[in-house]
Write a structure and sequence with these properties.
11 helices, 4-stranded antiparallel sheet, alpha/beta
Length: 342
């Protein structure tokens, strides 16, 4: 995890401003905004977590950050460069600097390619490694993630989930990226293996200084690994702040509902009851919000500072119209004026 003082005022490595990702609906009913004007920045060396239930837009936002999806609105900058509309040719040199660890390690590897060749590919494409150096480099990568050279000739199906996720991490760090997106990187692993992979991710981050965007529905994982946490609900960012601050003083009603699962379901957001269809217009959370007001039907809450620096929530009922409401404490923001007022 990054030193908070080092992050203060740091120039963002990646910065999304009002980012929009839309998809066509299968029923022909137009388009649906899976990511709806989300703004988020990740500083060099920082670990930012995104939490929220399935369908909240976390993975879609993460893939847009990597330009695996082309944004339909807003701007996206990487290392100060606007990459919002770059074509694949212009993006290719940047790919080595942004890598991803996927949720399901088995499906993220070609079943017909041996582990050695899977790790050698990025080294050949981006690492400038000669054929004579490949075996030594692959062995070093495997050793870095706690695996011996005997795993190099194996196929993906010949390894356990934990072992294969270690290989996925080795592949992600092979060419020294500046950003790693980890999408539910431990959710498909046995509980006994999760801690090992989390510790590995934490060690790799500390040693390399790579920035991370960590997607998870397990709040305990987010609390352990992340410097800051963003809470998403149906395509919108509703709260953002330092991890300790958000856990100590959750402000948005949705964040409070998520953290309540720590007492009952061990922090697994997937254990929440399925929500009713989100409300179009205004605040999307209003149909199950305990403090919803009439104004929530028409006012879209945006993240706004309430007091202090950096903890934000999004909510129209806090007595302030417009963007992020800043809560007392460093870096904590919420998009719900009613919650901030209370």
């Amino acid at each position: 995890m990054a030193d908070a003082s080092a992050l203060d005022g740091a120039t963002p490595l990646v910065e999304a401003s009002d980012l929009v990702v839309s998809f066509r609906q299968h029923d022909g009913g137009g388009t649906f905004r899976a990511v709806d004007a989300v703004s988020l920045a990740v500083a060099p060396g920082e670990v930012v977590g995104l939490v929220g239930e399935s369908g909240s837009g976390k993975t879609t936002f993460a893939k847009a950050i990597l330009r695996l999806y082309r944004p339909g609105g807003g701007t996206l900058r990487f290392a100060g460069r606007d990459i919002t509309t770059l074509g694949e040719g212009a993006l290719r040199p940047l790919r080595r600097h942004m890598q991803m660890v996927f949720q399901d390690p088995l499906s993220s590897f070609n079943p017909r390619v041996r582990i050695r060749d899977a790790l050698a590919l990025p080294l050949r494409l981006h690492g400038g490694v000669t054929a004579g150096e490949l075996d030594a480099k692959v062995a070093a990568l495997l050793a870095r993630v706690g695996l011996g050279p005997q795993f190099a000739p194996r196929y993906p199906h010949e390894m356990s989930g934990g072992q294969l996720q270690r290989v996925a991490i080795a592949r992600a760090i092979a060419v020294g990226p500046r950003l790693i997106v980890a999408d539910e990187a431990v959710s498909k692993l046995d509980v006994s293996v999760r801690a090992q992979i989390l510790n590995l991710l934490r060690d790799v981050q500390a040693e390399t200084g790579v920035a991370m965007l960590f997607i998870t529905h397990d709040l305990r994982v987010a609390r352990y690994l992340c410097d800051r946490i963003g809470v998403m609900f149906f395509g919108r960012l509703v709260e953002l702040g330092p991890t300790a601050e958000v856990f100590a003083r959750p402000t948005h009603p949705y964040t409070r509902a998520l953290l309540a699962t720590l007492d009952h379901e061990g922090g697994d957001v997937a254990a929440l009851e399925p929500p009713p269809p989100f409300a179009a217009g205004g605040c999307r959370y209003r149909t199950r919000c305990p403090i919803a007001r009439e104004s929530c039907r028409t006012q879209r809450p945006e993240l706004q500072a309430v007091a202090g620096a950096g903890h934000e929530i999004a909510g129209a009922g806090l007595g302030v119209t417009g963007a992020v409401h800043r809560v007392t404490g460093a870096g904590h923001e919420v998009a719900c004026p009613h919650a901030a007022a209370g």
